[in-house]
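Below is how a single chain appears once it has passed through the pipeline. First comes the sequence as given, then the structure the pipeline wrote out for it. We keep one example in the README because the format questions we get most often are answered faster by looking than by reading.
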Amino acid sequence: MNIDMTTVAEVVGLIGAFTYIFAYIQLQLKRDYAKTVTYSFMNFSAGVMVLFSLYFMWNTAAVIGNTMWVVMSVYGMYRTYRKQNPEAVETLEEVAEVIVPDILADAVGGVAEAVQDVTPVPPGTPKRKKRKSRKARKKKKNRNTRGKKK
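Resulting structure:
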């Protein structure tokens, strides 16, 4: 069986695209998720996979965007890990040695945790009242204070 590298690159690029989407879904489900090394690593690995596919199907704009995404993700991993463990990491080379094994373990646990966090709302649960906009609250306040002397 002869496998064309363009097909392999396309599959790897699709996996990268789905990784971007999964990271974004995680970000929406958890408020502090952007502050984790796992989030930066997912963006980094997605960027590398998309860059691999772009090597075979060149698009300059996409290469520039994904290269910047990878660079920002490496910086995010370094900065986040440095905050969590100030004495542990001194250089970016150490980041790869120290962080990557931790991230892979966290990613597997994070998926299970995210699935547990999403609980269906039971039928009949009352909806939260929407808060009025600042403009509406100010307008109501002005209406209530008309004609009153201070």
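The chain has one domain: 5-145.

See the next section for the split statistics.
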